[in-house]
Amino acid sequence: MGRAVTVATCALNQWALDFQGNLERIVRSIDIAKSRGARYRLGPELEICGYGCSDHYYESDTLLHSFQVLAKLLESPATQDIICDVGMPVLHRNVRYNCRVIFLNKKILLIRPKISLANAGNYRELRWFTPWNKARHVEEYFLPRIIQEVTGQETVPFGDAVLATKDTCLGAEICEELWAPNSPHIEMGLDGVEIITNSSGSHHVLRKAHTRVDLVNSATAKNGGIYILANQKGCDGDRLYYDGCAMISMNGETVAQGSQFSLDDVEVLVATLDLEDVRSYRAEISSRNLAASKVKPYPRVKVNFALSCSDDVAVPTCMPVQWRHHSPEEEISLGPACWLWDYLRRSRQAGFLLPLSGGIDSSATACIVYSMCHQVCLAVKNGNADVLADVRKIVNDETYVPEDPREFCKRIFTTCYMASENSSRDTCNRAKLLAEQIGSYHINLNIDAAVKAIVGIFSMVTGRTPCFSVYGGSSRENLALQNVQARIRMVLAYLFAQLTLWVRGMPGGLLVLGSANVDESLRGYLTKYDCSSADINPIGGISKTDLKNFIQYCIENFQLTALRSIMSAPPTAELEPLVDGHVAQTDEADMGMTYAELSIYGKLRKIAKAGPYSMFCKLINMWKEICTPREVASKVKHFFRMYSMNRHKMTTLTPSYHAENYSPDDNRFDLRPFLYNTSWSWQFRCIDKEVSAL
């Protein structure tokens, strides 16, 4: 009868400018889709060149190589007898667009440019692309010769149109258009488009996945229809982790769900759905039908092809599934672990080195690496040949098979406890025990000789010897002596990262991991160029509160009992002298605020767009049960003084996994000055005026 259509979507781990690898992953996804009976295949946004090309989009090479890959796809036997929908940049009349190129049997059917560009937070699409502002308008696009030679076409339709096959009608959205208040799927659905597709480049943020799923399901709940979403997956070269979650929805319910985190480079979802279910669902929504009678029609590109078979009465169709969301602790365990794996294998390094202090942050970082080792062993056990090949390259052993996460951890992960005279025996023991439980290659060393040498040079030159405040020194002396220890640890971390494997008779070098959390970075509670300075930081976008919950998750799920004492110990930098052999310095006392308060400040500053005055106005209500207005004013002023005084540190912040929308990352996400008037005289005067009135 021609009513059961079989469609495929995918999540691909594409890599910016890796044209060969991207081509191979696209072809593999098409092969899988065809082998499972699909007649239409959707891929992620800009999948040919990789989403994260950034300013490489300006280069003509990026356009050229994208068309070269497109030519290979058009010629490939894999793309015959299936409608293929791929993403790439296209230059039309000297304007660059983010496009979908839809083709069938060596003929391009339509080039559909993106209408709503993502230009907030981590996204800068308006820097490289122009939105297509001609609604329901189609122009002729003159194909480059490299494509003409394959297709025999001189021009193809370019613009805002839909495809009319023998049995149904398909319309495309691209990523941000789903999130826009006037999403194209609304009027497409009213115009009789039964299958809406969305190719995305959507990154992971803690607690965000349900929002994307709800948007897709609500799109078809109100208007009926089938919605197919593809997404990029993995680290394609920067701070973001694209979290897959490819899905297919019909009439408000999910019928196919892809994984959010996995080490599979290619994941394909296929669903067979009954078009009559869409038609009957729509038929009884009178408000939809009244609106449909007035909608302006879309240009239709006729396609002599069907997504269904004529004899499909007995073909089974897919039933709704219940979407399973990960808890935030699971997201921390899986997302940064997958990001680290991509970074490790693509950087061609031999592993990681982590300065392990015995505190929550570095311990959480170690647990993420251990989780990565778990994911690798599981993937190999499940037959993932790509992961096994990458493992063998990393450990330089063509016969190696990782089976035990602890044993694999020993090969690729080095932890290092760098003691000083200010370090306690407790933190040393905690670090050692955790290293034993996760299996890392652990080093204990003492930095006192290096500290004394550095301070000795200063004393020899100046004739003055600085002292800690507990011995009568000034605050400047006290801070300088703390910073010397911290910076020496950074230098030693890089030295051991370069030479530890040489000492062990193994090839390669190690990537240095940082472990400053998002709250410390926001407050600037770190030494510039200390162990927060590293190659990458898997927890730099995660709050202290979430990290504590993650540590508890690791105790329960990985049986890492060493974490119990780490959880119960107060966070401390251990840079000031001990008192009676015990730590006297604590992070929260040093900062003048709690980590819980810092998270609130961070969310108000970035997400709520609050300056000092607005933050004060919000907090006097939020904290009215625990603080007077004068106390709130004091806290807000202290935060903004410290934040602005230390903002310069964000310019050198280690590239961190982006997990929170209040990240202070200066590179792309949180664009602010780094030289402030730290007195905030006008703003604080407004606060004082309100305090006086209250």
TrEMBL record:
Protein origin, superkingdom: Eukaryota
CDD domains referenced in this protein's UniProt entry, alphabetically: GAT_Gln-NAD-synth, NAD_synthase
Keyword Ribonucleoprotein: no
Pfam family, one: CN_hydrolase
NAD recorded as keyword: yes
Keywords, sorted A to Z: ATP-binding, Ligase, NAD, Nucleotide-binding
Record InterPro entries: C-N_Hydrolase, C-N_Hydrolase_sf, Gln-dep_NAD_synthase, NAD/GMP_synthase, NAD_synthase, Rossmann-like_a/b/a_fold
Oligomer status and interactors: Homohexamer.
HAMAP family per the UniProt record, alphabetical: NadE_glutamine_dep
Protein name: Glutamine-dependent NAD(+) synthetase
Organism this protein belongs to: Columbina picui (Picui ground-dove)
Taxonomic classification: Eukaryota, Metazoa, Chordata, Craniata, Vertebrata
Record gene name: Nadsyn1
